[in-house]
Design brief:
alpha+beta; Immunoglobulin-like; 5-stranded antiparallel sheet; 2 helices; 12 strands; about 40% strand; globular
């Protein structure tokens, strides 16, 4: 009987040691696996860890939002509380990936409307200048956009890039006599996504 005990004790000790070492290895492995940043969906776009702060994120709607669509429509909204003084010049800058993937704009189809959603009254525009080399669109207003006024930049006949991508369109505004433009916010556009509204 004592001989049997002496044979079983070393075997059971090795088994328990194996379980203990496996548990330590598993715990160590789990503690060093990097945590991936999460993606949070909002009604104004996707926020990836390290992206645009919610106070600067602007709302938008995209229509005909398929890859390579030449009939895409962008409704880029700006809420009135972002406008603290009258604006006579809007500048939209966008990443070069947009045009590198064959995206383009039709300056004759870029307009500004007062109000929310799709806008209700057109605000006259003097000129729209698209500079692909610097990735920006300048909109010069005939009539100033008053302070505390919500408005929508409407772009029609946009040629979407060849494939899906998240493109940050940054907006700056400048009043008559201003020395420097003011940053107003960013649209995080999910372009060529086929889903449309954010």
């Amino acid at each position: 009987m004592s001989a049997k005990r002496s044979i079983l004790r070393p075997w059971s000790g090795r088994l328990l040691s194996g379980f203990f070492l496996s548990g330590v290895a598993l715990t160590t492995t789990l503690s060093v696996i990097p945590v991936q940043p999460s993606i949070a969906q909002t009604n104004q776009g996707v926020t990836i860890f390290g992206g645009v702060g919610s106070e600067y994120r602007l709302g938008y709607t995209l229509r005909n939002n398929q890859p390579r669509s030449t009939r895409a429509e962008y409704y880029l909204r700006v809420q009135g509380n972002r406008i603290d003084s009258a604006i006579s010049h809007l500048r939209i800058s966008y990443p070069e990936a947009f045009t590198n993937r064959r995206g383009s704009f039709n300056t004759d189809e870029i307009k500004v409307y007062r109000g929310r959603g799709s806008g209700d009254r057109e605000i006259p525009v003097e000129d729209v200048v698209w500079t692909p080399e610097s990735g920006q669109i300048d909109i010069y207003m005939t009539e100033d956009i008053p302070a505390d006024t919500s408005f929508v930049v409407v772009m029609k006949a946009v040629r979407n890039p060849d494939r899906y991508g998240m493109h940050r369109f940054n907006l700056q505004g400048e009043g008559r006599g201003d020395v420097l433009p003011r940053y107003l916010g960013t649209w995080e556009l999910m372009v060529a996504e086929d889903m449309g509204s954010r």
